Protein 1
Amino acid sequence: MMKIGIFDSGMGGTTIMNTIKTLLKEAEYFYLADSKNCPYGEKTNEELYKIVRKNVETLKNWGAKIIVIACNTATVKCISTLRQNYPEIEFVGTEPAIKLATETKAKNILVLATPGTVKSERTHQLLTENQKKDQNITLLPCPGLADTIENNIQLAPDHQPLPLTKAAKDVINNKLRTLFQDVETTPDIIVLGCTHYSLIKPEIQSFFKTSQIIDGNSGVARRTAAITNQLS
Ligand code: DGL
């Protein structure tokens, strides 16, 4: 059975794993929740590469042939170097779904991501390659949001998020209120450019009731399934 390694700075990547599992039941999954190094989005490139390399070594030792980087920050900053240094591993990355958003008729697109993802060259390349003339795309860095989620969310044994406690809801909503205070126009589409944010989609939706909210999870799952089928 194909061994698939998945990692993130904690629980965010379980949203990716859950989506992959709906397509690929016949695989053995190893999930590495690197919560002691959360948040990745506030590390330098060098710090982050060191952390990510260690995760890859661990998953490789567990026998993973495919490694899914279930984290936008680690993907946009590290995937090219990882591919050069580990040619024997098939890496599947997670990038902010900017391309998907620009392929719609949306005029106003809001991308929520970690400070590291917002600053990265790859994210800016995605904008340059995909933004249409009549589209306005705002990149909103969300410092502290991934760790707030990591510290306030609990998962059930099947890795689905449990309902938030009242206290957790308050902490998360206060954080979102601060982050969204300068967003003046209701976006047509909100891109969740960090896998942790998919865990609080209903809370984000309650601030922007009419916006469509998307993430890149299905694309990552389809790519993982395609590679697994090729290698099996
Ligand atoms: N969940 C990760 C992402 O998709 C990283 C969040 C963090 O640790 O800052 O970017």
Protein 2
Amino acid sequence: MKEKINILLLGSGGRECAMAWKISRSPRLDTLYVAPGNAAPYGTRVALDPMDFPAVKNFVEEKNIDMIVVGPENPLVGGIADFFADSEVKVIGPKADGARLEGSKEFAKEFMVRHGIPTARFMSVTEETLEQGMHFLESLQPPYVLKADGLAAGKGVIILDSLADAKDTLSDMLSGMFGSASATVVIEEFLSGIECSVFVVTDGEDYKLLPVAKDYKRVGEGDTGPNTGGMGSVSPVAFADEVFMEKVVQRIVEPTLKGLKAEGIHYKGFIFLGLINVEGNPMVIEYNVRMGDPETEVVMPRLKSDLVDLLEGVADETLSIKQVEEDPRAAVSVMLTSAGYPGDYQKGKMMTLPGQGDVLRFHAGTRLDEQGNVLTAGGRVMALTAYGTDIAAAAAKALAEAERVDFDGKYFRRDISRDLQAM
Ligand code: AMP
Ligand code: GLY
């Protein structure tokens, strides 16, 4: 084993920044590169498109990269792990076969049915089966859940209150609302409950669970307004107690890993279970084949163990001898966003970053100008993560920091974690 390794991390969001921060702290690390990255101070930025696999390969050879950590789903669904399968470099993330768990909602639902994993009742519909789809909608109680089968940048799920709207939207989706991603639509029964995100890391044989988190998707306080990429996150999640997690493991984690093996899918990487707690019983809302954003911004701070050591366990199939130790402190992350997001918003605003205390600043949509100033460059700009003895204390610290870090048009939610504070 090499004493220290070179890592290339692909991606440019808050998730990747939190991973870069964590990787940077590893005694196993020689050099970290982040492509394309943002204005964050962790790792060396590289102007590479994560979807340009030949360019990634050239860089890997040039810099003697030992491991590629893939942040977002697109390169995985696009087959980056397959592309590098015969090379020396270790890719953290599934091959395209495993990435279908996220790349196709229809595949994911059918996989769950095949392996007896609890999920909402559903029907998968195309233009040809539109009529059956309409009948299925009629058989359901409102609200109605419609999901584009393919990747739609987190926007492919629509929830409608009236049957008429659901029918119209189903037709619209099938006729190209999300391009080819919605040529197939999954209609689902609506599940009522509180959600949480469980992260599994697996080497194809063994697995470990990372700290459980919850994210806040809606733009407005009290979970109102349109869905966003995520306005904040918290860990731990009180209702994900020992009894609940035992059910998650027995009913979801282990059947999922067994199912992958049974289908000949050798899965190495992260599995993100989007779960909903329906009267004490966990059900799967979705699978993702990567870490969550902004969940990673609280999961990495709460992971005490060395992430690089853990990822080497994934690559070398030695995860069974690795440890996952959690920081006992709570963590809350508040996302600063640009006014107007998730609709239209302005970029290029100069950021004011007063002297940093102990609150972590995970850059999301930021960039550096020629003078080294940090400018806003996206809807989600920066995740501020604070620790606390409990989640209320962590939230108070993150919010205080959200007042200090500034830019024109700054917006954030003040109620991140509040629903869990009462539990
Ligand atoms: P997704 O993009 O799959 O994460 O879905 C976006 C959000 O829609 C989820 O986080 C849930 O809040 C909601 N959602 C998806 N499927 C269902 C369902 N069957 N019942 C209730 N809510 C759902
Ligand atoms: N926070 C949800 C996601 O990353 O998809």
